[in-house]
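User: Structure please.
Assistant: Input sequence and predicted structure:
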Amino acid sequence: MEHLFAAIDLGSNAIKLKIVQIIAGQMETLEDISVQIPLGDEVFLSNAIQLETVKEAIDTLKYFKKTMETYGVTEYKALATSALREAENSKNIIEIIRMKTGLEIEVVEDTIEKFLTYKSIRDKMENYKDIRKGALIVEVNSGSCDVSIYHQNKLIKNDEIKLGIKTLKYMLLEFENKTTSYPYVLKELVETRTSHIWPNIKSKKLNHFLAIGGDAKQIKELLFNDKNQISMNDVKKYCNKALACDFGLRRKVEKANIDWYEFLASIIVYDVFTELAEAKTIEIPNVSLRDGILAELVEKSYALSKYKHFNNDVYSLAYEISKRYKSGESHVKHLENTSLKIIRALKTTYRFHERDEMLLRLAAILHEIGKFTRMRDYLITTFEKISNLDILGVEHSECLMIAHICRLISSSEHKLYESSIPNVFNEDQMRIFKLASILSIADALDKGKQQRIEIIDTDITEEAFIIWVKRSEETVLEDWSFEFTIDNFANTFGIKPEIKDVT
């Protein structure tokens, strides 16, 4: 029998379950259930979720668990998003749910939520290759508005703007008390808050516009007969009606039990961005966090490669950040490739975390972003910059680890690693030391930034990690820098690194 997989999404307005079966390499949906529970409103108004609402959620999750057991689901993942991210009693609720249902719930960060949602584009949109060539993606959700740009098969921009539906809703209510043209006041505010990213959007001449998220789906179901692709002219007609507070439209929205102010807030945000892309239609695909969770579960279970381009979006975004800070692209790429050769050689003998390779690559790409300050120890500035980054698909704790890896690069001076790193879990400290010592060697081998040394092979013995290299010219600077990296590598891995020339 084929494996069955399930995804649970504890969102701001509903708790949802999706169960799929894999048949001939394709996902076939067996169940897709949504139960409306307004977690987000309570958090916005009181910073906490009340006990009665928690009980509702538990009853729903018990039903979901029974449904999964009936089908014989072999693997599941349950993620909670913005409501539980922001609730002050989030940890208590997660523990109560675990005790009452036996389900393990993970509160997922916004960067991971977006990464998984975008990943589902691969399965849910037949024209995903065209989308990646040039598209503007706008998602309005409970806590924020996310704007992304695909260009030339890469995700090159991802911005989070702190204008979520709940915030915008209560702004509308406040503006309504001051003026009858309150929708236009909110539109002006959204324009003010987002205008800094307009030039980047316009310059790319994007011919696809994607609106994603639960509110976008509500709009297409209510106004456009659930069509996935709608002409921009038709969209603009409804935007104008909404801004004018058309009585007939409002009655239609409220008759469908949709909050008028949340609906209006969504329409206003999409209206602002539809004027920036060159798309003739707006696409509202049936992508979701649940689909992204399932894609990841299936990918791991079947070792699939079809999500490769979407997985690589994290690196293309990092390269865009690196370029913004004028990092040397040829050096950064060489450093990334050299680091990968070293860690993959060490993996034959040493244990690494499944995400260590990703952290190492990101550290290699971002390690020079502090150089713009022209400080002698630019790695301190790099550390501060990376610590405050939001990178799609990377948790904040992982960004902090990347920052420490870069800070500990020891290819220019003797820099013995400290015994402990503040604000980092003990189990992650050794990971940082391992990756920092690898990155230090990679950086030393290209200290002159001329790519004069290429790793050809490696050997691991009881005493040494031998790096066989080919040199294109004299490498005095690289040999000198390499000496600074030996002690930390030896203290971390228990063997000394050595460079030997291929004859």
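The mean pLDDT is 94.
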